[in-house]
Amino acid sequence: MFGSSVLVLTALWHLLATWHFAFTPARTLGRATRERPISPIATELFRFLGAMNFAFVVLPLLALTLGGEARFLAFVTLAVANASQAVIDVRVKRMGLAQGPMFFQIFVGDIVFTAANAAACMALVLERHV
Predict the structure, then answer these.
(1) How many domains does the chain have?
(2) SS3 for the chain, per residue?
(3) Which structural domain, as residue segments, surrounds residue 101?
(4) What is the pLDDT along the chain (130 residues), one digit of tens a residue?
(5) Cα–Cα dist 49/20, whole Å
(6) Distance from C-alpha of 56 to C-alpha of 49, rounded to nearest angstrom
(7) Buried b (16+ CB within 10 A) or exposed e, 9-46
(8) Cβ 61 vs Cβ 30: under 8 Å
(9) Longest dimension (CA), the chain
(10) What is the C-alpha R_g of the chain?
(11) How confident is the model at residue 47, as a pLDDT?
């Protein structure tokens, strides 16, 4: 049950990211940075990030239906994806490129979903070895 919940919530988290980055990138940039005017290059890079996030919507949903090894692979992949994004979040913040509550929410979400997927992965491993 825990693992299934993590997969569903992770899919929802990345669905939100897909929406913000792919469909409303200029607004998202405006809420998370001081950059004015909003760069068309940055907007298109956010669209790319949105497309990448869509894969992280599909992955946990497929893992839900396939179970077993697919769940393990999904948990590992999603933990790594969110952890790597959290590292970039820290870098961007240190460089002074990000600001505001929306960026903080993104950072916290990346940490939460790193931890949740790592915990679900560990629970699956322990379940198999008990």
Answers:
(1) 1
(2) CHHHHHHHHHHHHHHHHHHHHHHCHHHHHHHHCCCCCCCHHHHHHHHHHHHHHHHHHHHHHHHHHHCHHHHHHHHHHHHHHHHHHHHHHHHHHHCCCCCHHHHHHHHHHHHHHHHHHHHHHHHHHHHHCC
(3) 2-128
(4) 999 999 999 999 999 999 999 999 999 999 999 889 999 999 999 999 999 999 999 999 999 999 889 999 999 999 999 999 999 999 999 999 998 999 999 999 999 999 999 999 999 998 887 6
(5) 10
(6) 11
(7) ebbebbeebbebbbeebeebbbebbeeeebeeeebeeb
(8) no
(9) 57
(10) 16
(11) 97
pLDDT at 130: 63
68: phi > 0 → left, psi -120 to 50 → alpha, else beta; which? Answer: left
pLDDT at residue 127 in the model: 87
Whole-model pTM: value is 0.93
Structure-token match 């929306």, residue found? 102
Go through the chain and tell me how many residues it has.
130
Q: Tell me if 21 sits within 8 A of 53, measured CB to CB.
A: yes
